[in-house]
Specification:
The chain is built from eleven helices and twelve strands. The protein is of the alpha/beta class. It has two domains: 126 residues, NAD(P)-binding Rossmann-like Domain (Rossmann fold), CATH 3.40.50.720; 182 residues, NAD(P)-binding Rossmann-like Domain (Rossmann fold), CATH 3.40.50. A seven-stranded parallel beta sheet has the order 8-7-6-9-10-11-12, with helices on one face. A five-stranded parallel beta sheet has the order 2-1-3-4-5, with helices on one face. Helix 7 links the parallel strand 6 and strand 7. Helix 5 packs across helix 7. The longest helix is centred in the C-terminal third of the chain and has 18 residues. The chain is elongated.
Length: 322
């Protein structure tokens, strides 16, 4: 059944290009590109679907909305507000498009720590040649355990790569009913505290939700082994950075690999910048080719599903934000 889709502001050359392609591919869809707030307020009244950030004001003006395509894989806190959660529209997101890129980034951290790069990179900066005994400063991945916290698309890809590297993979997930093929054990989130002491690498891929905010705190780091490493490529607000810094200084964990942070950019004065055994990247683990084409494909596929009445891709549990 034909319907109207509003592309909400702000616009870019990319979103305008998607609108043109979608209109040409699916002429039954009336695609409206709202170039500003006033245009969006007018168009949303009769729209059946929207792409972008739907503010409370726009939601209140709508009369026919059935589908909202979020513009990110995990939109920031506040995107799913109470009125939107209560509304009958179906929300979808862009999850799954980063799986291969972020999976590789996770393993880059794992391999770097396993081979001692967190020691050798600072030595390089000091022009220092210093080798430990040949049985020190490395992790034997074939006898190591990776605990993946969040076995969605990214966590599942990380599990596949970790298993291929010879690791034993265990994990937790709030949604899955059975473990992915490369995961030896899957547990509910409530089992995390009991699993932490078993892991050489604790890998956080969970989104930021009311349930995950601040979940990695000092008490959790103290449950990890002193020779274990923490990696976070999920969302920054899942990890209390001051607690992580304290745990590192106290030698409660061996190191940390971070791509996401409580505050971004991480303030220049934050002590993690100069803390030994910390590897950091600036929230770019998902970088790689083809991302905008993958985003468009989800938008196109969901528009087709709206026309045919088929299930939408990447449906979100709005109350839990993912």
């Amino acid at each position: 059944m034909a319907f109207m889709l509003v592309m909400l502001p702000p616009q870019s050359d990319i979103t305008r290009g998607w609108a043109r392609r979608l209109a040409a591919t699916l002429p039954e869809v009336e695609v409206v590109v709202a170039e500003g707030a006033q245009h969006a307020q007018h168009a949303i009244v009769d729209a059946d679907a929207a792409f972008g950030t739907l503010t409370p004001d726009l939601l209140a003006r709508s009369t026919r909305l059935r589908w909202l395509q979020a513009p990110q894989a995990a939109p920031p806190a506040g995107f799913y507000y109470p009125e939107l959660v209560a509304h009958p529209l179906v929300a979808t997101n862009f999850r799954e498009i980063f799986n291969d890129h972020i999976g590789a980034h996770i393993m880059a951290f794992v391999f770097a720590f396993a081979r001692g790069f967190h020691y050798y990179i600072p030595q390089q900066m000091r022009r220092q040649w210093a080798k430990p005994p040949e049985d020190h400063g490395v992790v034997d991945l074939h006898s190591a355990t990776a605990l993946i916290v969040g076995l969605g698309g990214i966590g599942t890809e990380a599990a596949r790569l970790a298993k291929a590297a010879g690791m034993n993979v265990i994990g937790t997930d709030a949604r899955r009913g059975s473990p992915p093929p490369d995961v030896a054990e899957m547990h509910p989130p409530e089992a995390l505290d009991a699993l932490l002491p078993r892991a050489d690498f604790v890998i956080a891929t969970v989104p930021h939700t009311p349930a995950t905010e601040g979940m990695f705190n000092r008490a959790r780091f103290q449950r990890m082994r002193r020779d274990a490493f923490f990696i976070n490529i999920g969302r920054g607000l899942t990890t209390k950075l001051d607690d992580l810094h304290a745990a590192l200084l106290a030698g409660e964990i061996a190191g940390a690999g971070l791509d996401v942070y409580e505050t971004e950019p991480l303030p220049a004065e934050h002590p993690l910048w100069t803390t030994p055994s910390v590897l950091m990247t600036p929230h770019m683990a998902g970088y790689g080719p083809h991302l905008n084409e993958r985003r468009y494909a989800i938008l196109r596929d969901n528009a087709r599903a709206m026309l045919s009445g088929a299930p939408l891709r990447n449906v979100v549990d709005k109350a839990n934000w993912f």
